[in-house]
Write a structure and sequence with these properties.
Layout (H helix, E strand, L loop, with lengths): L1 H26 L20 E4 L2 E4 L12 H17 L25 H6 L1 H4 L14 E4 L4 E4 L3 E5 L5 H9 L13 H4 L6 H5 L3 H9 L10 E2 L11 H5 L10 H8 L4 E6 L2 H12 L9 H18 L5 H5 L2 H4 L13 H11 L5 E5 H6 L1 H11 L7 H8 L8 H7 L4 H22 L9
Helix pairs in contact: 12-20, 15-20, 17-18
């Protein structure tokens, strides 16, 4: 009898303590979402773990208990991370993909047409990436060699400051150096092996092997300025379609890396086109002049208008191969930014894309570079370090060639402003910012 009384008192005390703990958690604003499964993988305090499609979340974010959208969870956690990074608290909580148990890749459930586009890649990807690594890494069979894909992508645009931005990102000690522009996702067309692409991560892998404790911090990127827009082989996969490609590079990359960080830097499309014309048409290859540039612009616009008689606006924008003259670099259509941005927004959650303007970058590097580092969940650097990075020589500028050839003709600028006006309006609506109208 006495034993039963003692047992009852013990159970009562346990119940009281459990209630007090639960009440304390409520007072502290914790929100616990438990899986219906009996198997949970609980992370460290201030982190969120995702397991079998459910979530255990100690952050103050409401998440449904079933049919959880992992991308929404990631977006919510990253949004909360930004708030924490901007607070005055001396302790900065870093929350990002490294702290999540990465969701399984749903390669087997991809639409057949999408799977066919990059079958050699999809067949070699793991079912999921290793937890605890900030970069998407896995052990590749048969020798179980560590391979890593880029953590972030500088998607584009060419002649819009990508080289300068890339160089300054690499100055951060948590970003390992690697080649800027492999153009692998857009131009290998399934021929370049996944192994050859991940060989870019040799420096990262070596550092991770020597210093395993850095696996949640070190990353690499891919700065191919073609990734945003180049889908010139789409008719090979989809055939001739009025609306353009069914799937684009954004869909392929999202299937392979659903939590990738994506950077885009844009420039007034009129200035970008002329800068590209001067840069990619050196004197030894083709004669350049303001008059010849005007003639080529007129010719490309005429071919585009002819295309519109048989295809949609989007379809013609993606028909670069048919409309641009391969002998002359006058890539008018890659300046129709709204079409490409809309497709990337369709594939990825918007909080995974950071879109910037070159014009703002030139005047406010010291304000924007820390924002880029925060977006990549990198440790904050001192103001002195940021100023030093931003005062370094501008990389890959084009002023010398512009000085030799001269400005474009006023009639050419007017023609191009009219051509890009509709796209700029749509872009400004997509981004909620009238700066992308590029009005003079």
């Amino acid at each position: 009898m006495n034993n039963k009384v003692v047992a009852g008192i013990v159970l009562l005390n346990i119940g009281v303590l459990a209630y007090l703990y639960y009440y304390d958690q409520l007072q502290n604003g914790s929100n616990v979402v438990l899986s219906s499964s009996t198997h949970h993988a609980h992370g460290k305090e201030g982190q969120a773990d995702v397991w079998n499609g459910y979530s255990y979340d100690k952050s103050p974010i409401d998440v449904p208990t079933k049919e959880v959208d992992l991308h929404k969870i990631t977006a919510a956690i990253r949004s909360e991370s930004v708030k924490n990074k901007n607070s005055e608290s001396p302790t900065r909580m870093k929350v990002g993909p490294a702290e999540l148990r990465r969701p399984k890749l749903n390669i087997s459930s991809l639409p057949p047409a999408l799977y066919k586009m990059r079958k050699p890649v999809f067949d070699l990807l793991p079912k999921s990436y290793l937890p605890g690594y900030k970069s998407p890494c896995w052990k590749a069979k048969p020798r179980m060699v560590l391979r890593c894909l880029p953590y972030f992508y500088l998607l584009g645009m060419p002649k819009s400051g990508t080289t300068d931005l890339w160089t300054k990102i690499l100055r951060h000690p948590e970003v390992k150096d690697t080649s800027k522009e492999p153009h692998w996702w857009t131009r290998s067309n399934g021929k370049g092996t996944l192994g050859s692409y991940t060989s870019r991560s040799k420096g990262l892998v070596k550092s991770l092997m020597l210093h395993p404790s850095l696996k949640s911090r070190l990353i690499i990127g891919d700065g191919s300025a073609s990734t945003l827009w180049d889908n010139h082989k789409w008719k090979t996969w989809n055939g001739e379609r009025y609306e353009g490609p069914t799937y684009v590079t954004a869909d392929v990359m999202h299937a392979a890396q659903p939590d990738a960080k994506l950077l885009v830097i844009l420039r007034n499309p009129v200035d970008r086109l002329y800068s590209g014309y001067l840069y990619f048409n050196p004197k030894y290859r083709i004669k350049t002049s303001a008059d010849l540039f005007h003639k080529e612009v007129v010719a490309v616009i005429n071919r585009f208008n002819k295309c519109l008689k048989t295809m949609s606006y989007r379809g013609c924008v993606y028909s670069i191969k048919d409309i641009h003259d391969p002998r002359v670099f006058c890539r008018l259509l890659i300046g129709v930014y709204s079409v490409y941005v809309r497709d990337w927004f369709r594939a990825y959650p918007r909080d995974q894309l950071k879109i910037m303007r070159l014009e703002d970058w030139h005047v406010n590097c010291t304000g924007m570079l820390p924002e880029v580092f925060d977006f990549l969940n990198l440790e904050r650097l001192s103001d002195k370090q940021i100023r030093r990075f931003c005062t370094e020589k501008l990389q890959n500028g084009n002023q010398a060639k512009l000085h030799v050839v001269g400005d474009m003709l006023p009639k050419t600028r007017k023609l191009l402003e009219n051509f890009y006006e509709g796209s700029n309006k749509e872009l400004s609506l997509l981004l909620g910012d009238e700066k992308y109208l590029w009005r003079s």
